[in-house]
Amino acid sequence: MPERQFRVQGKVQGVGFRWWTRSVARRLGITGTVRNLPDGSVEVRANGTADALSRLRSELEIGPSGAEVSLIEEQPATDVPTDSFDIAH
């Protein structure tokens, strides 16, 4: 299955973004991780079908209530966990 990495920028920390992302990813059948980065962005590493990853990106562009997404960078990823989708620390 395809593996992608998304870096989400904007007002994405302190608004429940990681918990929301985990919920969306699990609903879509995607495995991987989400974590806050020191620069204030959020990194999502995801493994799933092309359709599920496309739907995840669409959801990330909106984010949870209180978030303000200004930019999403997307690139291929490797070694994404395939057993579940979790919040990484």
Chain-wise SSE layout:
Elements: E1 3-11, H1 17-28, E2 31-36, E3 42-47, H2 50-62, E4 68-76, E5 85-87
Parallel strand pairs: 2-5
Antiparallel strand pairs: 1-3, 1-4, 2-3
Task: Give a structural overview.
It is a single chain. The chain has 89 residues and is α+β, with helices and mostly antiparallel strands. The protein has a single domain (3-79), classed as Alpha-Beta Plaits (2-Layer Sandwich), CATH 3.30.70. It contains 2 helices and 5 strands; from the N terminus they run E-H-E-E-H-E-E. It has a 5-stranded mixed beta sheet, with helices on one face. Helix 1 (17-28) packs antiparallel against helix 2. The longest helix is centred in the middle third of the chain and has 13 residues, at 50-62. The chain is globular.
Quick recap:
The protein has 89 residues and is of the alpha+beta class.
What key phrases describe this protein's structure?
single chain; 89 residues; alpha+beta; Alpha-Beta Plaits; 2 helices; 28% helix
